[in-house]
Write a structure and sequence with these properties.
- There is one protein chain.
- With 249 residues, the protein is α/β, with parallel strands linked by helices.
- It contains eleven helices and ten strands.
- The protein is 44% helix and 22% strand.
- Strands 1-2-4-5-6-7-8-9 form an eight-stranded mixed beta barrel, surrounded by five helices.
- A hairpin with a 2-residue loop joins strand 2 and strand 3.
- The radius of gyration is 18 Å and the shape is globular.
- 37% of the residues are buried.
- The chain binds guanosine-5'-monophosphate (G) (2 copies), manganese (II) ion (MN) and sodium ion.
- It is found in: Cell membrane.
- It comes from Marinobacterium halophilum.
- This is PAS domain S-box-containing protein/diguanylate cyclase (GGDEF)-like protein.
Length: 249
């Protein structure tokens, strides 16, 4: 209960902060965008999302927190892109509680208030979020994409979405879960699964993003396999906005 009260106050006190983990284009060898990841600068120190997002979801606080995340990510992205010849994309995680029809207006509001280009905003959803209401998800994805934004399927391969749904859910990006990347190149199964996801996505015209890229060997394998983007400790951990800004120069 104490935690819930503190979480409720955190928004008012502006204790949340977004960190940004760079995503690199493996073909062009350049920075292409980032994933925004929330942190809580609580009076007791830095708190990671695993420690408070589940409670925020249970209590419904994820709605105002999620609205803040969207607006803050768009505000920051708009500042970066005003100063850049080649714009960067910013990806925002969306939890199951947020994934409902009202999300369309929340996203539109954030874009309108900040002037962030819709094409540069990516919403990350997981398979379980989409599968809980398949027909509703198909409609919502269509409405979100008609705003001009992009949709990424997060942690791909760990949920239970059948491949048939890749046809019905209109997606722009697939994020290959880091549990598959970890075993590359030693684990033949991980190699086979990762290569197959990349090939399948290419044929479906979907951009691939490898998560948890930690070594040169991961990177080399993914580049040769034709993976589009990579994110992970090999390049950078999630960074405060000022540090990410330096990476852009
Ligand atoms: O760095 P990492 O510990 O940042 O993130 C852990 C988990 O928290 C990830 O699964 C990520 O999707 C989730 N997460 C991070 N930021 C947000 C956010 O802004 N909103 C939601 N709903 N989840 C987030
Ligand atoms: O949204 P998602 O569940 O994909 O959240 C990304 C999570 O992965 C965050 O907690 C982030 O800090 C973490 N992460 C990012 N890069 C790496 C990496 O290279 N290795 C590992 N183990 N975790 C990573
Ligand atoms: Mn994510
Ligand atoms: Na993920």
């Amino acid at each position: 209960l104490l935690m819930e009260v503190r979480l409720r106050d955190a928004l008012k006190r502006q204790e949340f902060e977004l960190y940004y983990q760079p995503q690199y284009d493996l073909g062009r060898n350049c920075l292409s965008g980032c994933e925004a990841l929330i942190r809580w600068n609580s009076p007791d120190g830095l708190v990671m999302p695993d420690q408070f997002i589940p409670l925020a979801e249970e209590t419904g606080l994820i709605i105002p927190i999620g609205t803040w995340v969207l607006e803050e990510a768009c505000r920051q992205g708009a500042i970066w892109n005003r100063a850049l010849a080649t714009p960067v994309s910013v990806a925002v995680n969306v939890s199951a509680v947020q994934f409902r029809p009202a999300l369309v207006n929340e996203v539109r509001g954030a874009l309108d208030r900040t002037g962030f280009e819709p094409e540069q905003l990516v919403l990350e959803v997981t398979e379980s979020v989409l599968m809980s209401d398949i027909e509703g998800s198909i409609r919502l994805l269509e409405q979100l994409r008609s705003l001009g934004i992009r949709i990424a399927l997060d942690d791909f391969g760990t949920g239970y979405a059948s491949l048939a749904y890749l046809k019905r859910f209109v997606l722009d990006k697939l994020k290959i879960d880091r549990t598959f990347i970890m075993g590359i190149p030693e684990d033949k199964d991980d190699v086979a699964i990762t290569s197959s996801i990349i090939d399948m996505a290419r044929h479906l015209n979907i951009i691939t993003v490898a998560e948890g890229v930690e070594t040169e060997a991961h990177c080399e394998f993914l580049r040769k396999a034709g993976c589009n983007l990579a994110q992970g400790y090999y390049f950078d951990k999630p960074l405060p906005a000022e540090v990410f800004s330096q990476r852009l120069q």
